[in-house]
Amino acid sequence: MAVGLIAPEVLHPVPGIRLAATAAGIRYVGRDDLVLIDAGADAAIAALYTTNAFRAAPVIVAAEHQAAGRPRWLLINAGNANAGTGAPGLDAARACCEALAAVTGGTPAAVLPFSTGVIGEPLPVERISGALPALQAGLAPNTWMQAARAIMTTDTVVKGASRRVPLSAGEITLTGIAKGSGMIHPDMATMLAFIGTDLAIEAEALSDLLRQANVESFNAITVDGDTSTNDAVVCMASGASGIGLATAADRAAFAAALEAVCLELAQAIVRDGEGATKFVTVEVTGAGSRSEAAAVAETVALSPLVKTALFASDPNWGRILAAVGRAGIADLVIDRVAIRVNDVEIVRAGGRAPGYAEAAGQQAFGAEEIHIVIDLGRGDASARKYTCDFSHEYVRINAEYRS
């Protein structure tokens, strides 16, 4: 069950962007599993892709097409990752792009393909290509929710976020959807996310803003330490509003809104982590640099021993201390380290805080929302990572994933 997460009530349509979803029978029965997004003829599209060396075929093709020209169409399937499929997988991804180009009257290079699901299975190209005419005919601006539902795999809740952003020349819209629940770890994106706006902006400037927004959002989450073969986050700007970033204040306002949407989607993924019963923020302060703080936060967030203690509501704070100690921080002075969990001071000066009581620790570790704050006492840099606990359900879900 997702932790403190419900499906969004409203996802605002984005002028100039249309979406459609349909059931192509790729793996699932009786549910939509194929999505088409038309970003608009004049769209600027920015994207970040997984750094996993075993990049899935659609990721390779999408990156090629993005570099080759001005993409317009996004084709997304769930149930089959088309990863670990070698040359036939690349052929299949390209064949889907060619089939869509034949339907839309465009070029294959204008299509960015994305896939999520089981690794190592051949992509059923015929089922996808056969569904494309109806998919194109169903394109509409108000179908973000249907699209968000169609890209789900082990997700239990639809993930979406919307903002209206006032700028100096008028108001623009930001809407995003995401999927992700397991095989989640920061190393670019760690899931699939698609964000649309009607802002008028060039692709290069949009790419800079997306990369900036990614740092504290999609690149700050982990469920299980596994970076997927298919990760991608895409931001589409249709330009339909005719409103650009005319001032520094405009740029700051849009950047803040984009970061907020990305963070909301990223945290939703962790809250819906496979088998998750707790949402955990690991905040490191007093570090000598941001990278140092991030290294400590990630080590704690990744620790199976910490995550299982959190699931059990067991205040075994020594596991947090041990993770800090093995994070690879040179010349760490342990006598300066302090740790709090929610409002409970647990560690002071490198050891158990004088006023710490086990009952208070039990209450802190038993909460559904847990905030671990680690002060290294060596500077003023900080970083946050977001994670969840490890439960019996996580093991069951992944043991039965292909059955």
List keywords for this structure.
alpha+beta; L-amino peptidase D-ALA esterase/amidase; 2 domains; six-stranded mixed beta sheet; 15 strands; single chain; about 400 residues; Ubiquitin-like (UB roll)
Q: Explain this structure to me?
A:
The protein is α+β, with helices and mostly antiparallel strands and 403 residues long. The chain has two domains: 18-271, L-amino peptidase D-ALA esterase/amidase; 279-399, Ubiquitin-like (UB roll). Helices cover 33% and strands 24% of the residues. The protein has helices spanning 57-68, 86-104, 125-137, 144-150, 203-215, 248-271, 290-302, 304-311, 318-325, 358-365, 392-399; strands spanning 18-22, 34-38, 44-49, 73-80, 111-118, 159-167, 170-179, 192-197, 232-237, 279-287, 338-341, 344-348, 351-352, 369-375, 381-388. A six-stranded mixed sheet has the order 13-12-11-14-10-15. α5 packs across α6. The model has no long low-confidence stretch (mean pLDDT 94).
Short structural description:
The chain has 11 helices and 15 strands. It has 403 residues and is an alpha+beta fold.
Give the helices and strands, then pairings.
Layout: E1 18-22, E2 34-38, E3 44-49, H1 57-68, E4 73-80, H2 86-104, E5 111-118, H3 125-137, H4 144-150, E6 159-167, E7 170-179, E8 192-197, H5 203-215, E9 232-237, H6 248-271, E10 279-287, H7 290-302, H8 304-311, H9 318-325, E11 338-341, E12 344-348, E13 351-352, H10 358-365, E14 369-375, E15 381-388, H11 392-399
Parallel strand pairs: 4-5, 8-9, 10-14
Antiparallel strand pairs: 1-2, 2-4, 3-9, 6-7, 7-8, 10-15, 11-12, 11-14, 12-13
